[in-house]
Amino acid sequence: xxxxxxxxxxxxxxxxxxxxxxxxxxxxxxxxxxxxxxxxxxxxxxxxxxxxxxxxxxxxxxxxxxxxxxxxxxxxxxxxxxxxxxxxxxxxxxxxxxxxxxxxxxxxxxxxxxxxxxxxxxxxxxxxxxxxxxxxxxxxxxxxxxxxxxxxxxxxxxxxxxxxxxxxxxxxxxxxxxxxxxxxxxxxxxxxxxxxxxxxxxxxxxxxxxxxxxxxxxxxxxxxxxxxxxxxxxxxxxxxxxxxxxxxxxxxxxxxxxxxxxxxxxxxxxxxxxxxxxxxxxxxxxxxxxxxxxxxxxxxxxxxxxxxxxxxxxxxxxxxxxxxxxxxxxxxxxxx
Length: 336
Fold this sequence. Notes:
By secondary structure, the chain is of the alpha/beta class.
């Protein structure tokens, strides 16, 4: 196993950049011929996906830096049927201060202003999130378009997007109609996502392709390409509600499609794995994959997010161990 120290930490700023330097993905004309060229070697993908975290490890102060970086890329999420304004406000307070100040001071990071990448909620919870995050600079992401199934009436899905933007969401996580992928109706998928892109206006569009429902890695690759052609600013693995959510293999396929799209268009598209990422170790594996496959720019929240509700607790426990030599009880890091 290769221990990674300063060489992987070079030029890795912990702080998010939160700028418009990346720009929007304007999309492109639909190119069905490109989809016909897509080939996936499943065994090679699985070997590569397993190899990245297995041969990379970070220790001591470098581990601290990477964990703090992971914090800044979390979409802190609550998507439960029993969500309340009070729960969302507590979640937003945690988003503003994800790690206790005493721990950050002990790690020498007390002045860095560490915050999460965004807070992700249902449409009904946008208003309390706007109030709780006022002045913080933390974006509000709203799940939309008939989340999580994406099977409500088309006009209702578009109206939900428009209303979420009007309510204060600066990022919209839409879910595609998976039947378009499973039946190979790529033009319909393109038209669907293009309509969402227009409905979003200035808000960034994150398309959830629900990889666990798409049957094959080739479908995942094609769906990723079509969403980017249609103007998605991010492609996202899962709703978190499927039986299988983010995995290293599907993530690797999606990252390769982001690279291919960037080489053809010059546009940078972001990536968001979501669902089932609950440990600091798993989060670091995704960060390593982003750096190796796409490069340094994709270690910022502008281009990388982790959709998670419980990950923050484990990262905070790891940081507390680094600061004081012992793991704190989980109730010392209450979420909501």
